[in-house]
Amino acid sequence: MKRSCMGMALVLLAVVGCRGDVPDALGTLERDRITLPAPAAERIVAIDVREGETVAVGQRVMQLEPVRTDARLEALRAQAHQAGAVLAELEAGPRHEAIDQARARLAAAKARAVDAQAYHARVRPLGERQLVAAAEVDSARAAAGHASAEVRAAEAALLELEHGTRAEQLVQGRAAERAATARAEEEAATLEKLSVVAPRDAVIESLPYKLGDQAPVGAPLAVLLVGEAPHARVYVPEPIRAGIRVGQRARVSVDGHEAAFEGRVRMIRSEPSFTPYYALTGEDAARLSYLAEITLDGDAARELPVGLPVRVEFVDAD
C-alpha cells in the first residue's frame, strides 16, 4: 500500500512537470476602450449617465456649458458675413455715381489747366520785355505745370474706376470670405461637440470628472467599453512564443466559469514586456513574456464582465 501511494505520487509529479514545460498564458478579460476627450475647457453642466450603464450610439453622455462658444460662433459668423459683403462689393465694381464724380473732377482739372496755360502765355512775353517781374513769370509757369499734372491724375483715376476691380483684389476677397466661413464652421463644430455623445454602442467604464468640473482641452471626459464581447489579454511566456501565431485557436478558461471558451489569437506583440530581451541570456530568457489578445467565441462570452482572471491554452501550439 505504501509503495502504491509512492508510485502514484511520482506519476502526479511527472504530469505536473510535463505541464510545466508548456506553461499557460495568464491574464484578464478586457474590452476595447475609447475615450471621449473634452473639445473645449468648459464647465460640465449635465451628466446623463452613470458608470456601468449601457449607452446607444448617439446617446448624450454629458453637456458642457455652451455660452462662450456660442458667442464666439456668432462673432465669427458676423465676420464671415462682413467678408462676403466686401467680396460682393468688389465683384460689383465701382458705382456709376463714383464714375460720374471722377469725370466731373477731370473736367474741372482741364478747365483749371486751360486757364493756367493761358495766363502763362500772357505773362511770358511781358516778362521777356521786363514789364513784369521774373518771379511772376516763373509762378505762372509752375501753375500751368501743376494744372497739367492734375489733369493727368484725374484721367488716371477715371480710368481706374472704368476698368473696374482688379482680378487680384477679387482673389484676395474670395480667400478672405472662405477663411472667415471656415473659422465659423470650425466653431460651429466645437459647439456641437459640447454635447458629448456616445460614438458607438458601449458601456460607461468611468467618468473622471464630476458635475461642475471644468476639464482642460483633450482631457478624458468619459471612458467607454465597446465591442460585442470581451477578449482575453494575456502574457505569453517565452518558451511557447515561437509556436503562437495570429489566427491560432485557443482555449480560454475564465475564473468563476466552469466551461472553457473557444477563441482565436487576434494579436501578439513582437516586443517582449518587462525585462528587455537583450538583458537576458540563457535560462533568464524564459522570464520574457509577450502581450497577446484572444477573441472569445460564443454568445455566452458577451455577458462576461471585464477584469476577470483568465488562463489560455493554445490548442495547436508547437
Key terms:
HlyD family efflux transporter periplasmic adaptor subunit; UPF0194_transport; Elongation Factor Tu (Ef-tu), domain 3; 318 residues; alpha+beta; 6 helices
Provide a descriptive summary of the structure in words.
This is HlyD family efflux transporter periplasmic adaptor subunit. Pfam families: HH_MFP_RND. It comes from Marilutibacter alkalisoli. InterPro entries: MdtA-like_HH (IPR058624), UPF0194_transport (IPR050465). The protein has 318 residues and is α+β, with helices and mostly antiparallel strands. It folds into 2 domains: 22-65 and 203-314, Efflux pump adaptor protein, beta barrel domain (Elongation Factor Tu (Ef-tu), domain 3); 76-184. It contains 6 helices and 11 strands. It has helices spanning 2-21, 67-92, 96-128, 134-163, 167-193, 238-241; strands at 25-37, 44-47, 54-55, 60-64, 195-197, 202-206, 220-237, 249-254, 261-268, 289-296, 309-314. The protein is rod-shaped and about 130 Å long. The two termini are 39 Å apart. Residues 1-20 have low confidence and may be disordered.
